[in-house]
Structure formats: structure tokens, C-alpha cells
Automatic annotation (TrEMBL):
PANTHER family recorded: DNA-BINDING PROTEIN STPA, PTHR38097
Family of this protein: Belongs to the histone-like protein H-NS family.
Subcellular locations according to the entry: Cytoplasm, Nucleoid
Pfam family, one: Histone_HNS
Alphabetized InterPro entries for the sequence: H-NS_C_dom (IPR027444), H-NS_C_dom_sf (IPR037150)
Keywords: Cytoplasm, DNA-binding
Keyword DNA-binding: yes
Predominant location category: cytoplasm
Organism listed in the record: Rhodoferax mekongensis
SMART domains found in the cross-reference section: HNS
Name of the protein in its database record: H-NS histone family protein
DNA-binding protein H-NS-like C-terminal domain ranges (all copies): 72-115
Protein origin, superkingdom: Bacteria
Length: 121
């Protein structure tokens, strides 16, 4: 017989043995888990909520895949950089507004809409 066939038959025998051991130990393991859950007051709902908990013994763990909370920055208004003929304004950030895109497509340079005077306080 070839080595491959021998290995495959050994794998099959070992998988059967592992399956038999698992089925024998299953009830014992479930009983142990139930005892631990009872001792610590753990419910099925607790297990479903945390799924995978990491951390050292005695310290609360983190939920796997959870991202740390982001600190929100305070948003400040940006002064307008461009002003259209009908009073529309644009800060120059983000997508070009339709009113300006239309005027540029019509042949007018974007620089002609720059706000040159200082904003009044």
C-alpha cells in the first residue's frame, strides 16, 4: 500500500476515535458548564451578549471586535471662500456645489467667485 492510503486510513480511524471521545465527554462537559454558570450566576443571555470576552482574571474583559469610543471633536463653522451671483456661498471644502459647477461649466473661472473682502464680525 502507498503511504498516502495508509495515512488516509489512519486519519479516518483517528476521526472516529475523536468523535467517540467527544460524544462520551459531551454530557460531562455540559454538566460542568451548568455548575459553573450556576456558581457565578451566569445566564445564557450573558453568554450571548459577550460571545468572546478577553481580559485577565478578576478584571472585566472587552468584547472581541469592539472599537474604543471615539472622542467627538467640536465642529466649527468654516468661513465662506466663494460666493455666487445669487448669494450662495461655499467654503471650498467637499464637493463643488451645483451652482458653482454650472458656472464653471459655462466658462467662468472659479477664482472669479472668490470672496476678497474680510468677513464682518
Amino acid at each position: 500500500m502507498s503511504k498516502l492510503i495508509d495515512l488516509q486510513s489512519q486519519i479516518e480511524k483517528l476521526q472516529k476515535q475523536a468523535s467517540e471521545i467527544r460524544s462520551k465527554e459531551f454530557n460531562t462537559t455540559v454538566s460542568e458548564i451548568q455548575q459553573l454558570m450556576s456558581a457565578y450566576g451566569i445566564t445564557v443571555k450573558d453568554l450571548q451578549a459577550t460571545k468572546a470576552v478577553k481580559g485577565k482574571a478578576g478584571r472585566p474583559g472587552k468584547v472581541a471586535g469592539a472599537k474604543p469610543a471615539k472622542v467627538k471633536k467640536e465642529k466649527t463653522a468654516v468661513a465662506a471662500k466663494y460666493k455666487g451671483p445669487n448669494g450662495e456661498t461655499w467654503s471650498g471644502r467637499g464637493l463643488t456645489p451645483k451652482w458653482l459647477a454650472t458656472l464653471i461649466a459655462g466658462g467662468q473661472p472659479k477664482e472669479s467667485f472668490l470672496i476678497t473682502e474680510a468677513p464682518q464680525a
